[in-house]
Specification:
It is built from three helices and 27 strands. It has helices spanning about 15, 205, 325-330, and strands at about 5-10, 25-30, 30-35, 40-45, 50, 60-65, 65-70, 80-85, 85, 95, 105-115, 115-125, 135, 140-145, 155-160, 175-180, 180-185, 195-200, 215, 225, 245-250, 255-260, 265-275, 285, 295-305, 315-320, 335-345. Strands 11, 12, 13, 14 and 15 form a five-stranded antiparallel beta sheet that branches. Strands 16-17-18-19-20 form a five-stranded antiparallel beta sheet. A four-stranded antiparallel beta sheet has the order 1-27-26-25.
Length: about 350
């Protein structure tokens, strides 16, 4: 396997202000980005704090299970941003994608294909059997038929997805278009080593909303096999995370994967491969967030955002606390944080 290129990493406080510009939107996690073209970037968020009064305090805010934002301008330190969420009949905050009965919809990632936008997410039970009581119910997707419009005017329709016996959260660990294919990554959720699987569709199928016949990576010997195949799916690496990103780095000619490494106090790690399917290098720590040493801290969801500018590579990670009361009172916790990567000279 090839090794990751050399980067120097630093906190990017000027960019952090991007997520503090709306007194009604008071933080979230996930923070996946989708390049919409034309200098517009879509941000997808998970559980989000919304304060209808605009007081800037979470004590009177409501947590909704997802929200979105449109960033205008590629450099997050100078860009503008507009957040969107739903509203209940009484005007109180609601998720951007409405909950489906007992299921909250947590965003994974998304992809723009021509004139359409496809968003992947994980329906989740909050009183289930998983970590912290969250139980993911596989993966799902929706089509946005008019992504040039503002999110409040989007025409959104659900897409049919195939059976998922492995329980892989496709699209939760990133989605990427490369050439004529769209690739979706996901971990096998119940396996603690987080093996990362990848499926693909012809891009035109994704644009038309047909996700029923993915091909899965089944290892070097078999290559890509249809969803109907009985051949075992083969992870491209172990020890991933449920949230991560993979993209092609044209400068080094390598594929790069970015993720958090650890549980609770976690580092940001990077690995590399000559091809999307590997062989992948071991993860290399590239950044230790300053929050690492705080008691009760959770650091997770580290991701790359190659469509953004202002650094050779822009990353974010999510922060949280095992003590819920701290999230209510700590105005710095539970906001995504930016990292600047500059190539070693």
């Amino acid at each position: 396997a090839v090794e990751p290129p050399c980067f120097e990493a630093s906190a990017w406080r000027e960019a952090d202000r991007l997520f503090h510009r709306d007194p009604h939107w008071l933080g979230a996690d996930v923070a996946s980005s989708v390049d919409l073209g034309g200098g517009r970037t879509l941000w997808l968020f998970g559980d989000s704090w919304i304060d209808p009064t605009g007081s800037g305090s979470r004590r009177g805010a409501r947590m909704v299970s997802n929200s979105v934002a449109i960033q205008a301008g590629a450099d997050p330190s100078t860009a503008t941003i507009a957040f969107s969420w739903g509203r209940n009949a009484d005007g109180s905050p609601a998720p951007f994608l409405p909950e489906r009965g007992a299921e909250s919809l947590w965003f994974g990632s998304g992809v723009r294909v021509g004139d359409r936008l496809v968003l992947f997410f994980a329906p989740t039970l909050r009183n289930g059997t998983g970590v912290f009581g969250f139980e993911h119910l596989g993966w799902a997707a929706v089509m946005v038929e008019n992504p040039e419009a503002e999110p409040s005017s989007w025409r959104v329709r659900p897409l049919e997805t195939p059976a998922n016996p492995l329980g892989v959260l496709l699209g939760f660990a990133g989605v990427r278009r490369l050439g004529e294919y769209v690739f979706a990554f996901g971990t096998e959720n119940t396996v603690k080593s987080h093996p990362l699987y990848v499926a693909r569709w012809p891009a035109e199928q994704v644009r038309s909303g047909n996700l029923l016949q993915p091909e899965w990576w089944a290892g070097e010997r078999l290559g890509w096999v249809p969803d109907s195949s009985r051949s075992p799916r083969w992870p491209v690496f172990e020890n991933g995370q449920s949230e991560l990103t993979i993209h092609y780095d044209s400068v080094s000619g390598r594929f790069l994967e970015v993720q958090s490494s650890g549980f609770g106090a976690a580092d940001v790690a990077i690995r590399a491969a000559p091809a999307l399917t590997g062989p992948w290098s071991a993860p290399r720590m590239i950044y230790r967030p300053p929050e690492y040493y705080r008691p009760n801290v959770m650091i997770y969801a580290a991701k790359a955002h190659p469509e953004l500018s202002g650094a050779d590579l822009v990353l974010t990670y999510a922060t949280n606390s095992f003590e819920f009361g701290e999230v209510l009172t700590d105005s710095l916790s539970y906001y995504p944080r930016f990292i600047r990567l500059e190539r070693c000279r």
